[in-house]
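2024-03-11 09:14:02 INFO worker-7 job=invfold-0412 stage=load source=structure_tokens
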């Protein structure tokens, strides 16, 4: 009788966080998981540096991190800031309506970045495209030989 984490079949496979893999790959990921605290927490290496240290590729390390559900502390010195969108309905929409539905003018009045205001308005359905979708049959393709 197979256990819960082993898939029946001709090749025995093991599951980690919903991802089925061979026993060989499972063993490699578990060895990597054991070394991960030193590489991530103590040395603060990114995925490419870890890959160079272990003799693997960066994409392999990133896949293993995804399988393990682990996020590195060092992400190539990138810091992604997320805007706090709470209260933006009351903050942006009245100014947007007063400016005649102009996103650029609204951003200037609120001292915000134009792309942030425009993207928020577009994502929440307040901006409607003024052009129509073109059918691919409308395009004329030329055959270059």
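2024-03-11 09:14:09 INFO worker-7 stage=emit residues=145
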């Amino acid at each position: 009788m197979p256990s819960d984490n082993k898939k029946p079949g001709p090749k025995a496979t093991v599951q980690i966080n919903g991802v089925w893999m061979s026993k060989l790959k499972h063993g490699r990921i578990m060895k990597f998981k054991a070394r991960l605290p030193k590489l991530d927490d103590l040395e603060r290496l990114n995925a490419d540096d870890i890959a160079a240290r272990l003799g693997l590729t960066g994409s392999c390390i990133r896949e293993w991190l995804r399988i393990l559900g682990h996020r590195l502390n060092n992400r190539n010195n990138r810091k992604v800031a997320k805007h706090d969108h709470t209260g933006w309905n009351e903050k942006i929409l009245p100014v947007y309506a007063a400016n005649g539905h102009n996103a650029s003018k609204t951003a200037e009045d609120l001292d915000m970045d134009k792309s942030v205001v425009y993207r928020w308005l577009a994502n929440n359905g307040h901006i409607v495209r003024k052009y129509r979708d073109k059918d691919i049959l409308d395009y004329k393709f030329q055959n270059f030989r």
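2024-03-11 09:14:09 INFO worker-7 stage=report msg="The helical segments are 23-42, 47-54, 58-68, 88-98, 103-110, 114-123."
2024-03-11 09:14:10 INFO worker-7 job finished
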